[in-house]
Amino acid sequence: MSTSPTLLDFYQLREHPFGVTPDPRYLYFSPGHSEALASLLNGIETGRGFLSLVAEPGMGKTTLLFQLLQRWEGHVYSAFLFQTQCNSLELIRYLLNDLGLNSDGEDIVRMHSELNEFLFRQKLAGKQVVVFIDEAQNLSDTVLETVRLLSDFEATDKKLLQIVLAGQPELANRLSHPGLAQLRQRIAVQARLEALSPSEVVRYINHRLQVAGRSEPGLFTPGALELIAERSSGIPRLINNLCFRALSLGFAFQSEQITADAVRRAAGDLSLEQHAETDAVLHQQGAPQATRGVRQLWETCYRWFRGNLVRPRRFQVSLAALVLGSLAIFLTLHGRSGTAQPTPETSPIIASGAKAPELEPLLAWAVANKSDAMHGQEIPKAGSSQDLPVSFTYVIQPNDTLRNLCMSTVGQYDNAVLAQIRKLNPDLRDPDHLLVGQEIRFPLYPPK
């Protein structure tokens, strides 16, 4: 008696690729995720004391923290605290309990003393102690002050305790309050995760399908992928939910490919159809294409403004954009004063005859490399063609292999990636035999 194929069998998968648990195997390293991981790894390795990771809900910060734990497994003592609705005494108890120490009693002084002795023992053994506090935006100001005092455990040469605060944007807002200035000043590394671009959404989906065992490309049609990027706004959790629902619908109708129609139905089931409703209203009202274009342009500009200007590390890029815009307005007005008014179909700057050739390389860079601005890199000077830094250094840990590291950093392992790694590491003689403690430079981006 034959049995009907399951969804996994039908789509040639070993396991479901769009689960909701923070599995480090499925972590896709977008440029933002790569930068955040590199910053946190370096901060822990150099003993910076306090580090923070801020991201919108669903961006994968918990998965990234698990990846950090996996990278340091066997080399650090770690505690992972999820219970952030607590007072100071409960926080210390949670910490001691997760470190395997005695957490009984009400004497917080005794618990501090026991923690201090434990930290010194680990220092003598050559191990660091790292505490991860997830959803830290829920901690009260009093508990945050208790966390700050934990950083006072130190030897003459280094901090005995590394603390990573992870939370939603509210955490960054809380830390900006004057009452928490001492804590904010101690945070040496401040990492952020941003929403994925449409092209990154495609790579994210393909990466998860590959990890789950799917070898054949094209499971999702181009139209379906485009719609997923639009409806999810580049948030990994929403991408997972959409893909999970779309796969279920596709299997129900025995569709070998997931089409845009299946994604549209899935978005409706998940109440992610707002964009579709807006488009339908505009179409029914006979709105001209220009109106829809203006709305899309406004949404794009707003997302860029929210994602770029609010981040201090992007200030240089934002300032450059402002200067370029001001120059464009000036050149337009200047051109109009001495030439005929341009027609609506003509670009004002071109019509005025103001080419500003010295600005063209900078403007071209700003348009073509918006994503690079995420990393706080300097804007190249006019006429410069020098490549921006696109790599980070990683210290090899036991059981690391180049294949696994490449898959977790750039999402692929092929001749193009190997060529990129050899270029970054000219002294790397044998990629198949990595030494513990060896420093390897990895690219932040997959080769084009």
Description:
30% of the residues are buried. It contains 19 helices and seven strands. The strands form two sheets. Strands 2-3-4-1-5 form a five-stranded parallel β-sheet, sandwiched between helices. A two-stranded antiparallel ribbon has the order 6-7. It is globular and about 65 Å long. The protein has four domains: 31-193, Rossmann fold (3-Layer(aba) Sandwich), CATH 3.40.50; 196-288, Helicase, Ruva Protein, domain 3 (Orthogonal Bundle), CATH 1.10.8; 311-375; 391-443, LysM domain (Membrane-bound Lytic Murein Transglycosylase D, Chain A), CATH 3.10.350. Residues 275-321 and 336-389 have low confidence and may be disordered. The chain is of the alpha/beta class and 448 residues long.
Helix and strand string, N-terminal first? HHEHEHHEHEHHEHHHHHHHHHEHHE
CATH class identity of the largest domain: Alpha Beta
Gyration radius over CA: 26 Å
Tally of domains: 4
Gross morphology: globular
Strand order of the largest sheet: 2-3-4-1-5
Distance between the termini: 49 Å
Write the topology of this structure.
Elements (H helix, E strand, L loop, with lengths): L6 H4 L20 H15 L4 E6 L5 H11 L4 E6 L6 H11 L9 H17 L3 E6 L7 H10 L11 E6 L1 H7 L5 H6 E7 L4 H14 L10 H11 L3 H17 L7 H10 L4 H11 L4 H20 L6 H24 L9 H5 L7 H9 L22 E5 L6 H8 L5 H10 L14 E5 L5
Parallel strand pairs: 1-4, 1-5, 2-3, 3-4
Antiparallel strand pairs: 6-7
Helix pairs in contact: 4-5, 9-10, 10-11, 10-12, 11-12
